[in-house]
Amino acid sequence: MRSPSKTKSSTAPAANKIATRQTPCLKCPLRALKTFREFQPAELEFVEWFKTGEFASDEGATILMEGHSSPHLYTILSGWAFRHKTLPDGRRQILNFALPGDFLGLQTSMFNEMQHSVETLTKTVLCVFPRDKIWSLYEKFPGLAYDLTWIAARSERLLDEQLLSVGRRSAQEKMAFVLLHLFYRAQAVGLATGNKVVFPFTQQHLADSLGLSLVHTNKTLKALLARKWCRWKDGTFELVDEAALRELACYEGDLASLRPLI
Amino acid sequence: MRSPSKTKSSTAPAANKIATRQTPCLKCPLRALKTFREFQPAELEFVEWFKTGEFASDEGATILMEGHSSPHLYTILSGWAFRHKTLPDGRRQILNFALPGDFLGLQTSMFNEMQHSVETLTKTVLCVFPRDKIWSLYEKFPGLAYDLTWIAARSERLLDEQLLSVGRRSAQEKMAFVLLHLFYRAQAVGLATGNKVVFPFTQQHLADSLGLSLVHTNKTLKALLARKWCRWKDGTFELVDEAALRELACYEGDLASLRPLI
DNA sequence: CGGGATATTGAGTTAGTTCAACACAGGTGG
DNA sequence: CCACCTGTGTTGAACTAACTCAATATCCCG
Questions:
Q1: N or C end of chain A, less CB within 10 A?
Q2: How far apart are alpha carbons A191 and A150 in whole angstroms?
Q3: What's this model's pTM, rounded to 2 decimal places?
Q4: Nearest to B115 among A2, A160, A169 (CB)
Q5: Smallest Cβ distance to B163: which of A148, A166, A257?
Q6: Domain that holds residue B87
Q7: Phi/psi at A251 (nearest 5 deg)?
């Protein structure tokens, strides 16, 4: 049996929280991105009403916890986070990473209890929505309801891809795949500068995401970087030979279609 | 690199199809099960209208194909199927299994193109819904719209669990987990007789689901069966020591909550 | 009877794991 | 300012879970 990955979540449950209202949805910087679909004025007004505040969190904070429920749903306004599950002995699997524009806690509103945790990788600002208002969304704004289903279906799609990766790709392929995938996603929300993106996660996070041990993740990463198709130094990832990486990763879809932002 | 699992889908794309209307939703045998929530008369009437027919398929038939789109959504009325993805060189990952009451093809209605395939394991009867009618569901029946999101969130949950399994459980744990999981799901839709269920899949399917090779799957299964906590002979699975299996599998949730049936 | 799909088993190989040591950076308290 | 600590990254060595290859046994079906 594999030994648990002994990751200490550096900070204890969420520090510094601010619940002040700051960014009006109308001026949400994410809406400007061409990644997101445009809203009707009425929809926007509703979302404005739906949003009850913002939540600023430190890095390494646990936003939602496995086995607990939460009265809130969240959208990431800025920052990175990740969803994960752990086995009783501590082995951890990162399910996926969450970037600005991503929705968190849909399970909360559907099932009451979360079966995974969410932890931040950076300082993060979240838009907060009360789950008890969600029903009025379904009643009054079928377009937004459709969007919610769309969002859930999209996560499912990402998970499918991740599952294929963890189950059937070799370590090197997995590595190439995840780096490329995260690069594309970051790029889609405007986090890329040319072919560079700041990656806020550690090798331990990659290991837990890919289902590999830390040591082997390190060796695999080294081997991949030695190919010179990408660089990763001082927290910054740089894509050099996209085609070569895609080939290695068996990367097919682009997953970067137009999406809603609730 | 692992070699592709050379699985030949026995039958070519779907054989014998019958598109006659047979089971009125009102008398749907699945609705009788306590697993599914009750519908309002108006909802039922709508679903009746939404459903355009039934589709009877042979075993081993491909219902939906990766990279293609489909004008239909499906619900399984009877039979087993599975969703899967493949890499260019043929390595296959089974994403999950689908049982009666499960919804297929939500991705079709949200994204146009499927990124996974769906294949039957047994003779299967599917309820057919045209995707172009789905919008009226959102407009007129928020309750059903909510259900659709619920269904998508549930699949996500199952995938989370599956991902944890493939990424972090040992072969033996994976095996125990998947058998237990499928037993529970089959039981929930009335396919169990006492502690026995007919499992229609082969070891190759298990291998592709767990991310293991066929040979190792066989050896792992043998070793598990040698523990006498369950039996599997002539296609019938029998649960003997549930507690022991759960312990081995690190099985936690039950995933068998009340659900909608569209 | 022959062919195809499935299950089984043994033997050798390898990808990935575990253990252990060390290097480096940043942060803290004396 | 230094000593110390903790989180992160690196590397080598030994081990093992899982893989590949290959052969054989069944069974079902036409």
A1: N
A2: 23
A3: 0.92
A4: A160
A5: A166
A6: 25-153
A7: -80, 125
